[in-house]
Amino acid sequence: MVLGGDGFCGWPTSLHLSAAGHDVFIVDNFARRDADAELGAESLTPIEPLDVRREVWRELTGNELGFRRIDVAHEYDELRDLVDELRPDAVVHFAEQRAAPYSMKSAAHKRYTVDNNTNATHNLLAALVETGVDAHVAHLGTMGVYGYGGGLRIPEGYLRVRVDNGDADVEREILFPPDPGSVYHMTKTIDQLVFAFYNKNDGVRVTDLHQGIVWGTQTPETALDDRLINRFDYDGDYGTVLNRFLMQAAIGYPLTVHGTGGQTRAFIHIRDTVRCVQLALEHPPQHGERVRIFNQMTEVHRLIELAELVSRLTGAQIEFVDNPRKEAFENDLLVENRSLLDLGLNPIRLEDSLMQEVSAIALRFRDRCDLDKIPCRSRWVQEPREAVGTADSFDLPGF
Ligand code: NAD
Ligand code: USQ
Predict the structure, then answer these.
(1) From atom 3 of ligand 2, which residue's Cα is the shortest distance away?
(2) Which atom of ligand 2 is least distant from the CA of 145?
(3) Residue of 119, 128, 158, 323 with fewest CB within 10 Å of its CB?
């Protein structure tokens, strides 16, 4: 089962797993497509409805992709019954609200993100336990659970600590202290505790993949036919930084560097995302093993250096804009990522040809871009209520 299989990572992963010979069943409630409508900002690439995507994949490969529309966070009975019916070997869990700026837009967006993400994760685990299905859960976490740096090499999930215990020091391995930078990232730190509990109490096998910022658009499978094309988020809420820079360069919009650009972040190409998920699934944890945590990233870059690289390649201007976020204006970042490399990941590095591929897609669909949607308007610290206007009154169901 692939929860969130209609999304930016979920769709290419579903196709990749299907191409690799796995039976894939997608669950999605189209919350991401609804957010497009709410924000008035569509994917830069024209994405087909999921039924069309599945039908094209069947025509091309003969492989069926199952699908059920379920809100994993709120339709527990439907989820549990489907788990019981399919009895999957593995569940890949992408089904969360994943944009940090969206999660900080207003109280309604904060509450929606917490409710959606924490309930989706908990419902999945409760359903596996209630049905007695011994599936391996591969969850997409985030590098943002760690904060970004602190002067040490970020380990894969666990930190060895020595505690002064009076007579003798005691050594322990604990979950790396969480340090989220947005309400969205905070939900992923909550997910970690939920996984630790269900792993300890019920023996649920979990791999939590702490992924960096994904860039790129197409994978070999999504590139097979235009009707399989992956989504490309460029707007100020969902667009992530490198894809935004490449898209901005392609349409002649100055590269929007927040603050000084001294922020350093971890990155991974979408083609490696799908391979990492496959590697994690094909090497599940043993029964009784604690939650496995892998850092799913392949390289680290400082934003200003990325902007300069894109500018050198394309001639784009760089514009330093006020940072709408509350984040360190400069940080170093060292990350341990040995586990996926040891399983056989041969990482794709940032290179001109791949960046040009993204630029080419951006150029091809530039007419679909709404320039007004490019600036990041969601601010981490809200103005006093009177000055916010109607930002709180977005019509999110239940919020
Ligand atoms: P996305 O928004 O494109 O996809 C998420 C999918 O989940 C969407 O299709 C959405 O409709 C679905 N969904 C959300 N809530 C749901 C619910 N309650 N029930 C059923 N379906 C639901 O996001 P993405 O970029 O594909 O990210 C997928 C996962 O990977 C997320 O959990 C995200 O936190 C994580 N991740 C993404 C990135 C990145 O750069 N895109 C980086 C690190 C981690
Ligand atoms: N930034 C700019 N200019 C822009 C957009 C962003 O300078 O136009 C800066 C931001 O201020 C931030 C950095 O770029 O310092 C990264 O922002 P982002 O939007 O690319 O990434 P982020 O908000 O961290 O979230 C994305 C995904 C999220 C995932 C996370 C992985 O949306 O789902 O969890 O990357 S990580 O960053 O490693 O935590």
Answers:
(1) 257
(2) 39
(3) 158
